[in-house]
Every structure is written in C-alpha cells, then in structure tokens.
Amino acid sequence: MKEIGVIAIGYAKQAFREGSRERIRMERYAAHFAEYHIIVFTKKAEGFPSVQQSGTLFLHATNAHTKVEMLWRAYRIGRTILQQSNRRFVVTCQDPFETALVGGAVAFGNRATDHIQIHGDVFNPQSYQHSLLQRLRMVYGKYVVRRAKNIRVVSERIKTGLLSLGVLPRAITVLPIYADLKQFLAVGAVRNYRVSDTVRFLYVGRFAAEKNIPLLLAAFAVVTKKYPSAQLTLLGAGPEEAGFKALVEEYQITTRVTFLPWTDNVPMVMKNHDVFCLASNHEGWGMVLLEAAATGMPIITTDVGCAGTCVVHNENGYIVPVEHQSEFEAAMEQYCSTPRLVSTHGAASYHLAKQQALSETEYELKVVDSLTSCVP
Description:
Layout: E1 4-10, H1 21-30, E2 35-40, E3 51-54, E4 57-61, H2 67-83, E5 88-93, H3 98-107, E6 112-118, H4 132-147, E7 151-153, H5 156-164, E8 172-174, H6 182-190, E9 200-206, H7 213-226, E10 231-237, H8 241-250, E11 257-260, H9 266-271, E12 275-278, H10 287-294, E13 299-302, E14 317-320, H11 325-337, H12 340-356, H13 360-372
Parallel strand pairs: 1-2, 1-5, 2-4, 5-6, 6-7, 7-8, 9-10, 9-12, 10-11, 12-13, 13-14
Antiparallel strand pairs: 3-4
C-alpha cells in the first residue's frame, strides 16, 4: 500500500483545521499511503492556505474566484501532482458530478485509476425533479457511473439503484458511513423500558422538506385522538420549522408536540423517549436510524436509506412505504396499544446495532482496502 498515492477531490474544508475530526481522520488514512493529496474546492475569499502538509497528507485549496475557475484549478493541481511523481495513483471523487468531472480529467491518460464515492441517494427522482440544473447534473452523473470501474456507496439500496442504471456489480463496493456509536450503545446497554400507555415518539434531524415531517405530524394527530396521552418531540432546526409549527397549531396538538433546539447530547434525548420516527421521502444512508437503534429504541421509518439493514420490519420496528400516512399511523398505534412491544423491539434494535458497529480502526482499514483494491 505504501507505494500507492491517492488524490481525493471534494469539499473537506474542515480538514484544514488542525485537530478537527476531519483532519485526524484524513491523517489516519494518509498513513497507509506514500502520498495522500486532498484537493478541496475553496474560494479565494475563504482564506485557506494553498497547501498544508502533515506527514504524507497534503491539503490543496483551489482558492478560486468563480465556480468554473474552481474546477480548472482543481484539475491543474491534480495534473501537477501526477506529473511530479512516478507512483501509481487512485483519484477518488466525492460525488459523480463536479468532483468526478475533475477527477476523470485528472486521471485520463495518466498512471491513475479513478474511483467515485456516492454518499447519498443522489439518483432518487425526488432529490432533483424540481430543478432543471439538478436534472442536467443527473444526466451527467448517470453517464459517469455507467462508465465507472470503481464506485463506493454507503448502502445496498444505492447499489441496487446503480445496478438498475446498468452499472456492473463488480464495480460497486458497499461501505456504510462510519458511525461512532459508543455513546449511543452506552445508553442502550442500560435502558430501562417503561410499561406505560404514554408512548414518547421522537424525530431527530433537519427541518427540511425531504424529511416529510408534515406526514409525521398528520399521522400523530390522528393517533392522539385514540391515544391522547401520546407525545411527540421534534429535535432539530431548518428552513421549514415555522411551517411545521403552524401545522401543529392547525392540528390542535400543541400540548402533545415539543420542539427542541439542536443539541450535541442526542443520546440523552433518545434515552428519554420510547420510539424513533422517520418519515423521509429519501435518504442516502440515514445514520440517525442506526444511532436510535443503538440506544435501544424501536423504529418507525419509511422505506428509505438503511431501512432493511438497520431496521428489520416487525423485528425491531416497522418499515412503511414512502408517503403512506395510514400505514405510519398504524405503526404508531401498534406501539401505543401494545406497550410491551416497545421493549421487545427496542432490545432487538440494540443487539442489531451492536452487531453492526465497527471500531474506527476497522472502518479505516475497509476504506483503505476500497482504494487499494481498485489499483491494477
């Protein structure tokens, strides 16, 4: 591995900050390679240094004035790195769009193998159908992945989507996003399940349109008519918050719904709730589901992201079709009508998450292997 170099192209601005989690993670990856260059899309006004070095890690800022110049500078930096070294390189791109455009041009005709990372469900029509620019990006992205020989995705769901586009199975490696579950598993290990008809539902995440919180609120409003002691907490922030609060007023459930501002102590919030809910229209991976499972919470989720992997239907929760409010209601009512099901599914969640948890070192080695294995 030491004789191989890596050129990563992306948006990892936090890597420039010494001591940051991103920087430490990149330094750990770089230790496995002779050279590990990260070309970061930055603007001149952001004031990043042109180059930073830490051991075998090299950080390069594009420091461009425009987006087009950003792409050009990234290309020139990558080509210069290759011209100044005799090593074999992997050029890994953070998405199949702008970074892949640069990465493909850098790798073309050189001693380099291109590699594409896909961290979300980027080809889901719900993520791009409302924007012409996004639709054009999708056309290019689909062209890229069909020609790619090395793609790393974060879920089996994304792999299935790529296969439907005609991508060859041998080109795809599945490696979920690393999740540090220690604090969450610590909560799950000592969770005390209550037997009560007051079920406390919880959502954690952005207040954004794709999360379809209106469906969650509408379903909960119906449930409270039959189970008036049920509670729902929404933890997060985002552009749709005012609209969601207006819906709570409209459904007359203000005494049953609580909005909490974002906190870094999510495990403790999960500890004080019973059932986790996610009504998203689409997710790439949905790490919050794995975190909730690690705390011993049963989960109700739409069929997105890691549903089927971190959530097994009728084993540690319920998976319902996207935008099916009636089935979401039925799942919530199931926990209200059968309180002991909370502990049964919750315990299953904890054990499932514990089995899937990787140490940081184990994950690091899998990332390194995904890069080195694509070098001929």
